[in-house]
Amino acid sequence: MGSLTAAPWIYVVVGLSVLLDVFVPVLPSGVLVITAATAAAAGTGAATGQVPGEVPDILALTLCAATASVLGDLVAYRLAWRGGARLDRAIARSRRLTSAQERLGTALARGGGALVVLARFAPAGRSVVSLSAGATHRSPRDFLPWSALAGLTWATYSVALGYFGAQWLGPTWLATAVSVGALFAAGAGATYLMRRKPA
Questions:
Q1: Residue among 10, 23, 104, 38 at smallest CA distance from 71
Q2: Residues 61 and 159 sit within 8 Å (Cβ to Cβ)
Q3: Does the first or last residue of the chain, that is N or C, have fewer Cβ atoms within 10 Å of its Cβ?
Q4: ∠ at Cα 178 (172, 183), nearest 5°?
Q5: Residue 44: its pLDDT value, please?
Q6: pTM of this structure
Q7: Which of 61, 75, 59, 99 is nearest to 147 (CA)?
Q8: DSSP secondary-structure letter at 130?
Q9: Cα separation of 149 and 75, whole Å?
C-alpha cells in the first residue's frame, strides 16, 4: 500500500471504492480509507503541522470519502426511483428490503433520518436504505441531507480511526488492524440498533 498511498491516485481509488460499495457492499472501502489515513499519519510530521505532498492529506481524504459516499447514495436512489415494477417485485420478495422500506418511511415521515446515518455504518445498510428511499419515491429533500450527514460522519470516523490509531500505536499493521476492528465494531453496533424493534 505504501506506493499507492504515496500517489495522488489514492483519492481516485478511495473515491471509486466508496462510490461503488453501495452496489457491491463487499468492497473494502472502509479499509482503504483507514489505510490511507494511517499512511497520512505516518508522514504528517504532527509536531510541525506540515503535511508533505507524498502522503494523503487528511482533510482531502475525508472530503473525498464523504463526497463519494453521497454520490453513490444518489446514484442508487435515482436508479431505484426509476426502477419501476421490476424493482418493486424484487423488493417485495425480500423481507429485509420490505422491512427497511417500512422503517425508513416511518423515520423520514417523522422528520428523523437517524436511520440513514446509522445504516451507513451497518454492512449493506447503506445499500438497503438508498434503494428503499428511491423505490418508495421519498422526497430528495427528506433523504439527501441525511445521506450527506451519514457520508460525512462515516468518512470522518474512518479517517480519524486510521489517523489516531497510527498516532497512538505507530504507523504499523497493528494500528491498521485495530482501527479496522473498531470500524467493524461500529458496524456491528449499527446493525444491532437497526434490528431492534421500535419502541
A1: 23
A2: yes
A3: C
A4: 130
A5: 52
A6: 0.79
A7: 75
A8: H
A9: 17
Residue with cell 446493525: 191
Give the DSSP letter string of 131-183. Answer: HHHHHTT--HHHHHHHHHHHHHHHHHHHHHHHHHHHHHH-SSHHHHHHHHHHH
Look at the chain and count its residues: 199
Domain boundaries, the chain: 10-22+30-37+58-196
- Classify residue 62 as exposed, middle or buried by CB count within 10 Å of its CB (0-12, 13-18, 19+): buried
Closest CA to 74 of 152, 153, 148: 148
pLDDT for 75 equals 93
The whole-angstrom separation of Cα 96 and Cα 99 is 5
Show the cell assigned to 179: 482501527
Distance (Å, rounded) from C-alpha 196 to C-alpha 177? 29
**Cell digits of residue 154:** 462515516
Which residues lie closer than 8 Å to 14 by C-beta, 6 or more apart? 29, 32, 33, 36, 61, 64, 65, 68
pLDDT digits (tens, 9 = 90+) for 144-187: 999 999 999 999 999 999 898 888 887 777 878 888 889 889 88
